[in-house]
């Protein structure tokens, strides 16, 4: 089995975890962000020290690859690349919306075999980054920036029970308003949930080119002038 360092910075939450032989052996989370630039390095140093003192070799670094916060993804990716270069480790990209589905499936929160999963990340106002997946995490509809209306997911809802979760889901439920729509609360992307996806990708040889990998931002970054300067 492998040793994988996982880094998750796609939202305001900053988390780092380490797995070895399929088990989580280190985990740190901070939910008070965004403060990735202040604490991510400390979390990573602690994780690497943990395995170094136990003579465990790092095999790969998994990083949440987006969509999500432009700044958060950029910070996480930069850190991951630096570790890969310094430790001669492989780089694994874990799609953020698939990551959101892991605790839903592991927690057996979905009963129906043909149910669909819609992980959502808040993109402000009534817009979300969303994807439609089946229970095997096969893509039913690709990732889009959805401005949610009553019709956005109607075709899926008319045919399936559909479970919505992530930090963009709650604000949409009154608008979706369908008897087949279900909200699963308190689902956030965390590094400790990356291992099943990361280990599968590593076993399949689905690793990234460290030099050329960039996160999936979905939207271009737009700089804004602080209000106090206007």
TrEMBL record:
Q: Cellular component GO terms, alphabetically?
A: cytosol
Gene Ontology BP, a term: tRNA threonylcarbamoyladenosine modification
One Pfam family here: TsaD
Coiled-coil region? none
User: The Gcp-like domain covers which part of the protein?
Assistant: 35-225
The name on file for this protein is Gcp-like domain-containing protein
Q: Which organism is it from?
A: Segatella oulorum F0390
Q: State the taxonomy lineage.
A: Bacteria, Pseudomonadati, Bacteroidota, Bacteroidia, Bacteroidales
């Amino acid at each position: 089995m492998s040793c994988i360092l996982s880094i998750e910075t796609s939202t305001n939450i900053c988390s780092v975890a380490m797995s070895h032989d399929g088990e989580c052996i280190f985990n740190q989370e901070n939910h008070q962000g965004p403060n990735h630039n202040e604490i991510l390095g400390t979390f990573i140093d602690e994780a690497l020290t943990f395995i170094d003192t136990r003579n465990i070799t790092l095999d790969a670094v998994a990083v949440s690859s987006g969509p999500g916060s432009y700044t958060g993804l950029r910070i996480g990716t930069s850190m991951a690349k630096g570790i890969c270069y310094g430790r001669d480790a492989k780089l694994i990209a874990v799609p953020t919306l698939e990551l959101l589905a892991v605790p839903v499936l592991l927690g057996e929160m979905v009963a129906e075999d043909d149910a669909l999963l819609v992980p959502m990340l808040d993109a402000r106002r009534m817009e979300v980054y969303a994807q439609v997946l089946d229970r095997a995490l096969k893509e039913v509809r690709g990732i889009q920036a959805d401005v949610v209306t009553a019709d956005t997911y109607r075709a899926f809802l008319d045919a399936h029970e559909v479970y919505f979760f992530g930090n963009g889901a709650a604000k949409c439920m009154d608008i979706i308003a369908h008897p087949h729509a279900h909200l699963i609360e308190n689902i956030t992307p965390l590094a400790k949930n990356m291992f099943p996806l990361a280990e599968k990708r590593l076993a399949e040889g689905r690793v990234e080119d460290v030099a050329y990998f960039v996160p999936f931002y979905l939207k271009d970054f737009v700089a804004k002038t602080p209000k106090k300067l206007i």
